[in-house]
Amino acid sequence: MRQRPDMALWQGRRDPEEGERAKRWHQCIAPLREGSPRGIVVAGVCSDEGVRRNQGRPGARGGPEAIRRAMANQAFHLERPLYDGGNLLCPENHLEDLAQEQARWIEGFLHQGHFPIILGGGHEIALGNYLGLSRHLAKNNPAPSIGIVNFDAHFDLRQGQAPTSGTPFRQVAEYCWKEDLPFLYFCLGISETANTAALFDRAEALGVQYLKDEELTPWNLALAEARLREFLTECDALYLSIDLDVLPGAVAPGVSAPAIRGVSLEVLEHLLRFLRSEAGAKLKLADLAECNPEDDPDGRTARVAARLAHLLAREVPAPVPDKGVEYE
Ligand SMILES: N=CN[C@@H](CCC(=O)O)C(=O)O
Ligand SMILES: [Mn+2]
Ligand SMILES: [Mn+2]
C-alpha cells in the first residue's frame, strides 16, 4: 500500500554553466528517510475510486505522478529541505481502509516535524489527511480545534453509506461529532450551479462557512480576508485543502468536474499568501486534490498544481516545535 519514492520521475533541464544557484526541483529533492532534517514533504495518494463512485471522470490516481513530473523542472527557490515521501495506493479500490492507513502515514510526517503537501488523488484524500492531523495534535491536546480551509467549487458534504470524493467533509463532521470536537469548515469558491439546494441546506445545518466563486473577485478581497481572519481565531491548527476544480476550467481542465467560472489563479494565490501570513505556524498540512492527467491537455492542471505547491512550500512558515521537540 505504501510505495517508496520513485526518484526516476524527477527529471528536467540542467544548467551547470550557471552554477549552484541554477538548480531546479529535480536537482534538490531527496527521498525522505527516517531522521531526515525537517522540511517539506511531497507525497501522493493514488486514488480515484472516490471519483468513480461519485459519478465523475476517473484518472486522478495518476495525479501524483503527473504533478511530480511538472514540479521537477521548476526553478528551486526554497529555503528548506525538500523530500519525496512516496505514495500511498488505495488497496483494490477499498476506500473504506484508505483513510485509516493514510492517517497513520500523515501522522508520521507530522511527527517528524515536516510540512506535508499531499498530492491527489480524488478529494476522498481529505478524510485521511484530517484524521492524520487530528491524531498528531491529540498527542499534546486531547481536543484540538482544527480549522479546514477548502478552496473548492463543491462542498463535498454529500450523504451516503459509502465514502466518495463528494463525502469527505461530511465524514469529518461526523467524526467531530462522535469525538466531541468542533467542526470548523470554511469552503471558498462554491459554485451555486454545481451544488444542489440540499447541499446548501446541509452546509447551513453543519455551520459551514463559505464564500461563492462570484464573491471571490480581485475587487472584493477584503471580504474573504476578514472572514478568514475571523475563522482562524477559532482554530489551533489549520488544514488547507485545494481542490483544483476551484480554478476556471481553462486553467485547470484536468479535473473530474471543470468549472465554468471558477476563482482566478491570481485570487487563489493572493488568498494562499494571506493565509500563510495570518495562520503562521497554525498551518500544518496542505493538499492538492483532483488532478486528472487523463483529461489534461498540455499537462496544464498538473503544472498549475506544481506552481501552487511551489507557492505553498515557499510561503510555508518556519516550523514551530511541538511540545518537547527542538528545531535545529
Ligand atoms: N469532489 C466532488 N465532486 C463534485 C462533483 C460534481 C459533479 O460531478 O458535477 C461533487 O460531489 O459535488
Ligand atoms: Mn470540487
Ligand atoms: Mn472537492
CATH topology: Arginase, Chain A
Roughly how many Å apart are the termini?
Answer: 33 Å
Share of residues in strands: 15-25%
C-alpha Rg (nearest Å): 18 Å
User: Helix tally?
Assistant: 10
CATH C-level class: Alpha Beta
How many strands, which pairing sense, and closed or not: the largest β-sheet?
10 strands, mixed
The backbone outline, from C-alpha atoms, is globular
Total domain modules: 1
List the ions, cofactors and other small molecules found in this model. Answer: N-(iminomethyl)-L-glutamic acid, manganese (II) ion
Class from helix and strand fractions: alpha/beta
Q: What's the SSE pattern?
A: EHEEHHEHEHEHEHEHEHEH
The CATH homologous superfamily name equals: Ureohydrolase domain
What is the share of helical residues? Answer: 25-40%
Model regions low in confidence, pLDDT < 50 over at least 5 residues: 323-328
* Corresponding CATH architecture: 3-Layer(aba) Sandwich
